[in-house]
């Protein structure tokens, strides 16, 4: 983690800011996201494609991290957005991302959401089924518009990642089967006036740490392009999806230059506008979740009970995923310490952040950081167990700001109503 280091009495420092200071000022649990790291990674990714001379439009996958401040940083870096709901579309527009730079993916877009997209004339709608195609075509014709679309191809390839984040197998709900694409493509381009079909999109899954699945997927797309062009059909855009993983633990995760290389080798000669939709790679290492040790419980195991739970960061409970954990104070000796379970306060056995992990000694009141929490962290939080949403702080250029106040219990309760008729019976 090049953005994290221990600096004596300041403890763990992220891009120049002491995380202990943040936790003491704003309390815990507290998310910290670094605009500097986010920007740095965005530029690194773009440079990898520039170095290969590949014409690529980058669309940030808003689902990974949807905060307006983060979208603003990425918009400043020239990123568009990949959205999967009307809500994310509104967010992207609100952050100043131009409609033409927005791609809309997702298998269950409602009529209202499609209408919003058509109205704003967004860059591309990735159509995921024949049914959606007909719905969109009719809707756009009614609105006297022509929607720019691509077909999301289901290439029937196993991305070999966690099954809950695998999306490109035939049995997965995503995309249009690759073998029906040619006939459908012809029919769409020759008969449908509500849509302008510009190309193909593919996304195999998330947290992919080898080049194999990417290569297979793009090869399948390339061969489809050749088939379609041989049939006289027009293709100007290919959306390569997201999915580049990061090393949460000790995985060797490939750099963006690998992705650029695979894309160059498989799709580079097709003379198309390329698009990518990365989320995790950009945002995950940009964020941490700070928590305080409530108690150290010595039972059959030593449990470090912290004040963040699966309601804040659900990834370990949901995908058995590993997140690095570091104390915020500078440990006297990184090697010393205990084998512990780090757990949250929620009444579920799955509320565990680390099992039998060797950590420096931790006592009641100590602060810790859960690493790589900038993607699929805040966005998947809930208020389970009536735990208000945690505060979010952005750091950057030596400055810091609260970008989301900690939710209060009053706010939580204020959203509920008890029907009158219940009280007067
Ligand atoms: N494009 C599409 C169509 C997607 O479905 C996704 C992620 C992305 C792009 C961005 O993928 P990324 O670059 O972030 O890998 N909640 C899970 C991850 C779910 C990913 C869903 N789709 C997790 O915490 O691991």
UniProtKB/TrEMBL annotation:
Q: Which residues form the signal peptide?
A: none
Q: Give me the reactions it catalyses.
A: meso-2,6-diaminopimelate + H(+) = L-lysine + CO2
Q: Which residues carry this modification: N6-(pyridoxal phosphate)lysine?
A: 63
- Describe the location of the Orn/DAP/Arg decarboxylase 2 N-terminal domain by residue ranges: 37-284
- Record InterPro entries: Ala_racemase/Decarboxylase_C, DAP_deCOOHase_LysA, De-COase2_N, Orn/DAP/Arg_de-COase, PLP-binding_barrel
The coenzyme or cofactor needed here is: pyridoxal 5'-phosphate
Q: What is its EC number?
A: 4.1.1.20
* Top-rank EC class of the record's enzyme: lyase
Coiled-coil stretches, from where to where? none
Specify which residues bind substrate according to the UniProt entry for this protein.
280, 315, 319, 348, 376
Q: In which pathway does it act?
A: Amino-acid biosynthesis; L-lysine biosynthesis via DAP pathway; L-lysine from DL-2,6-diaminopimelate: step 1/1
> Which UniProt keyword terms apply here?
Amino-acid biosynthesis, Decarboxylase, Lyase, Lysine biosynthesis, Pyridoxal phosphate
Binding positions for pyridoxal 5'-phosphate?
243, 277-280, 376
Q: Pfam families, alphabetically? A: Orn_Arg_deC_N
What family does this belong to? Answer: Belongs to the Orn/Lys/Arg decarboxylase class-II family. LysA subfamily.
The task this protein performs is described as: Specifically catalyzes the decarboxylation of meso-diaminopimelate (meso-DAP) to L-lysine.
* Subunit-structure text: Homodimer.
The name this protein carries in UniProt is Diaminopimelate decarboxylase
The source organism is: Bombella pluederhausensis
Task: Tell me the name of the encoding gene.
Answer: lysA
